Amino acid sequence: DQGEIEVTMLPYDYKAMYFGQLLEGTVTSFISHGAMLDVGRDRPAFLHVRKIQQEWLRSAEDVLSMGQVVKVHVDGQDHSEIKVTMLPVD
Questions:
Q1: How does residue 11 score in pLDDT terms, banded at 50, 70 and 90?
Q2: Is 45 in contact with 60 (CB distance < 8 Å)?
Q3: Residues sharing a CB contact under 8 Å with residue 3, sequence separation 6 or more, in sequence order
Q4: pLDDT tens readout for residues 14-66
Q5: What pTM was estimated for this model as a whole?
Q6: How far is residue 51's CA from residue 63's CA, in Å, rounded to a whole number?
Q7: How far apart are CA 27 and CA 66, in angstroms?
Q8: Can you tell me the distance from the alpha carbon of 66 to that of 35, in angstroms, rounded to the nearest whole number?
Q9: pLDDT in tens, 1-10
Q10: CA nearest 49: which of 34, 36, 70, 66?
Q11: How many Å apart are CA 86 and CA 21, to the nearest integer?
Q12: 68: closest CA among 23, 41, 29?
């Protein structure tokens, strides 16, 4: 019929994600302005180079390595990625 639209809901898994939630993530790749992490969710986590340490950092690869496990907290999320900040290393 004209004037009717069909709406399909896409799966979107928040799994009780919340701002400040602590997670562990494994570095899976580097991009020009940070690193992508696997945090065991339905989408990757993005760790911006400015969210790795307080001091200026040219590249995430300067302090992180592929497969490294890091502790992060959730800053936010959208349909494609979780945004995180790295916690200081003990």
A1: low
A2: no
A3: none
A4: 556 788 999 999 999 999 999 999 999 888 999 999 999 989 999 999 999 99
A5: 0.79
A6: 12
A7: 5
A8: 9
A9: 567 777 665 5
A10: 34
A11: 12
A12: 29
